[in-house]
Amino acid sequence: MAKTFLEVAVQTALEAGEILAEEFARPVDISYKGDVDLVTQADRRSEQAIVARLGCEFPEHAILAEEGSGHESKSRYRWYVDPLDGTTNFAHGYPCFAVSIGLAEDDRMIAAVVHNPIGKELFAAERGKGAALNGRRIRVSQIDRLSRSLLVTGFPTHKRTQNPNIYYYWDFTLQSHGVRRDGSAALDLAAVAAGRFEGFWEFGLKPWDTAAGVLLVEEAGGRVTDFDGQPYPLGGPVLLASNGLVHAEMQKVAAEVVKKKPLAGG
User: Fold this and answer.
1) Model pTM?
2) End of a domain among 85, 109, 138?
């Protein structure tokens, strides 16, 4: 019997996770993309394994991978691959990182996997079939007030002084139960899907950062938009994901920040 897209994605993520766990146990081989963006041997080995596996299983599919080893095609299907989301964490020995693999059909996400090999957690989702953590169904949290919500966000590694997020961070911190910053957008979104956080926002994320996580949130019953409530396009300037119940409050806070700090509009 032929394997489903999700089954292949899960097997591929597990194989890549074994590579990351192996690399995590030994000294890190680091180089830089620009002044501050890290890339490690683990990124490269993981991506090579993922692209090779997906290319073997689905040679006609397009693959967009962070380190550039994917390829284009005229296929309706496109894989979004982040071989190591949380490279800075990995390089510093902080065990918060993941493999992220998502598949789109005609630009609509249909399958997703986010795997943290150190935490031994594998999040998976399939369009119309829900989301799961290690095979058990997950749902977003039912907290319906921002004041009782735990939120999560992220900051870029480059051009930090030009990024507006510090203004949003301040206001969201004051109006929520707290804001965390864990350094992996894929795991942040997976945590929203699992009900650990009520909301997540971030600026300037790449398609491979969010493709899998967006589907996880949606299939777990959450909502994903931009700050204006419009559909979030992969690679869009700002992403807002929540359990749906605090979404409007988060949008309101964001709008208030823009009024106070016009240049912080994203």
Assistant:
1) 0.93
2) 138
Report the C-alpha gap between 26 and 240 in whole angstroms: 36
Same domain, residue pair 119 and 153 = no
Please state the length of the chain. 266
Other C-beta atoms closer than 10 Å to the C-beta of 166 total: 12
Q: What is the DSSP letter of 42?
A: H
> Are 107 and 215 found together in one domain?
no
* Token representation of residue 28: 């890190």
- pLDDT tens per residue across span 41-73: 889 999 999 999 999 999 999 999 998 888 999
Q: How far apart are CA 88 and CA 96, in angstroms?
A: 10
Residue 264 and residue 124: Cα distance in Å, rounded? 34
What token pair was written down for 226?
A: 């931009």
Specify the number of domains making up the chain: 2
Q: What is the rounded CA–CA span in Å between residue 123 and residue 133?
A: 4
Domain at 191, CATH number: 3.40.190.80
